[in-house]
Design a protein that fits this description.
- The protein is of the alpha/beta class.
- It has two domains: about 1-155, 3-Layer(aba) Sandwich (Rossmann fold); about 175-305, Rossmann fold (3-Layer(aba) Sandwich).
- It has helices spanning about 1-10, 30-35, 50-60, 70-75, 80-90, 115-120, 135-145, 195-205, 225-230, 250-260, 280-285, 290-305; strands at about 20-25, 40-45, 65-70, 95-100, 130, 150-155, 175-180, 185-190, 210-215, 215-220, 235-245, 265-270.
- It has a seven-stranded mixed beta sheet with strand order 2-1-3-4-6-5-10, sandwiched between helices.
- β11 (about 235-245), α10 and β12 form a beta-alpha-beta unit.
- It starts with a helix and ends with a helix.
- The model has no long low-confidence stretch (mean pLDDT about 95).
C-alpha cells in the first residue's frame, strides 16, 4: 500500500510543482529514482522528526502541498507537539504518510507498533484520518489528499497487501461494502480487513454470511452513514488492529450510546496494555483475537447466546 500511495503522489509531481515530499530517513527504496529526477521536490531530513514536522509546516506556509513520509512512531508520536501546534492548529495542507499500522512490524516490538495512533489523532482537531484496507482504498486516499486543503494522516501497513475491492472507490469518506451479507456485519479498517474477509468465508461454510464493511475514513467518522448501513443487522462487530479503547470501535461505541440502534455492538481489538509477546504479525493477530479464525469463533459464540 505504501508504494501505491507514494506512486500516486509522485506521479503528480510533473504536473504540480507545488508538491514537496519529505522523508525522515525512511522509504529510501521508494524514493531512489524520484529524488534523482526531481531533487527540487524532495528532501530527506534524517533522524530529526520534530524538525521534520516543523519544516513541513514552514513549507506549507510558503505555498507547498507537503507530504511527510516515515514510520508511524516517527511521523506522529515523537513529533506530536509539532503536528499539533504547527500543522493541525493552523490547518495546513500537510499529509502525514505513516507506515507500519497496527503490528505490521512484528516481531520488532512495542517501539515499532502503531496501536494507539488513532487515539492520538482523536485529540487533533482539523486532522482527517484514513486507514485503508487495501491498495484500492489507498489510491483513493491519495487522490483525496491531493485535493485536501487541510491536514491529512494516512496510516498504511508495509507492503504486499491484497486488493479486497473489485472496483475503484468513488468516495473514500464513505463506508465501503467489501462483501455482501445478512444478519451480521463486520466493520474493519486497515490491513486487518483481509482477516475479516477470511472470517466471512469461514462462517459462510456454517451458514452464516456476514456483510463486511470497510470504514477507511476513521476521523471524522461519518456515523450517520455507517449506522444506516448497519441498520438491517442484528449484530455488528468492529474489528481493528489497534487498541480497542481508543480506536474506531470506541468511536462507534460513543455514537452507539447516543443513538441507541436496534443492533448489538461488539468491539474487537487489542487490549489496552503494553505488548510483550514476540510473534510475527499473523501470530500477534491470533493472540489478540483478531485473526480470521478468532473472529469467526467470536461471531459464533455471540450468536449461540441468542
Amino acid at each position: 500500500m505504501r508504494n501505491t500511495f507514494m506512486n500516486a503522489v509522485m506521479g503528480q509531481c510533473g504536473k504540480r510543482k507545488d508538491i514537496f515530499i519529505i522523508s525522515g530517513d525512511a522509504g529510501l527504496g521508494v524514493f531512489d529514482e524520484f529524488q534523482k529526477k526531481r531533487p527540487q521536490q524532495f528532501l530527506n531530513l534524517g533522524v530529526a522528526e520534530q524538525n521534520m514536522a516543523g519544516f513541513a509546516a514552514g513549507m506549507a506556509l510558503s505555498g507547498y502541498k507537503v507530504y511527510v513520509y516515515n514510520i508511524i512512531p516517527f511521523v506522529l508520536y515523537r513529533c506530536y507537539e509539532q503536528v499539533r501546534n504547527d500543522i493541525c492548529y493552523q490547518r495546513l495542507p500537510v499529509t502525514l504518510v505513516g507506515i507500519g499500522s497496527g503490528v505490521s512490524y512484528a516481531p520488532q516490538g512495542m517501539t515499532h507498533y502503531a496501536i494507539e495512533d488513532i487515539g492520538l489523532a482523536h485529540t487533533l482537531p482539523n486532522l482527517t484520518v484514513f486507514s485503508p484496507v487495501d491498495p484500492v482504498e489507498t489510491a483513493a486516499a491519495a487522490e483525496y489528499s491531493l485535493r485536501a486543503s487541510g491536514p491529512v494522516y494516512v496510516r498504511l501497513a508495509k507492503k504486499g497487501e491484497p486488493s479486497l475491492h473489485q472496483r475503484r472507490v468513488p468516495d473514500i469518506r464513505q463506508p465501503q461494502i467489501l462483501r455482501e451479507g445478512r444478519e451480521v456485519a463486520l466493520i474493519c479498517h486497515g490491513s486487518i480487513g483481509v482477516e475479516a474477509v477470511k472470517a466471512r468465508d469461514m462462517l459462510e461454510k456454517q451458514g452464516i454470511v456476514p456483510q463486511v464493511i470497510s470504514m477507511p475514513m476513521v476521523q471524522p467518522l461519518l456515523a450517520g452513514e455507517l449506522f444506516a448501513v448497519c441498520k438491517p443487522y442484528k449484530h455488528v462487530f468492529s474489528i481493528e488492529e489497534h487498541y480497542a479503547g481508543c480506536g474506531l470501535g470506541s468511536a462507534i461505541a460513543k455514537e452507539y450510546a447516543q443513538r441507541h440502534p436496534a443492533w448489538k455492538l461488539h468491539v474487537l481489538g487489542i487490549a489496552d496494555t503494553f505488548v510483550h509477546e514476540i510473534k510475527d504479525t499473523a501470530g500477534m493477530r491470533d493472540h489478540f483475537g483478531i485473526s480470521a479464525r478468532k473472529i469467526a469463533e467470536r461471531v459464533l459464540a455471540e450468536l449461540r447466546k441468542e
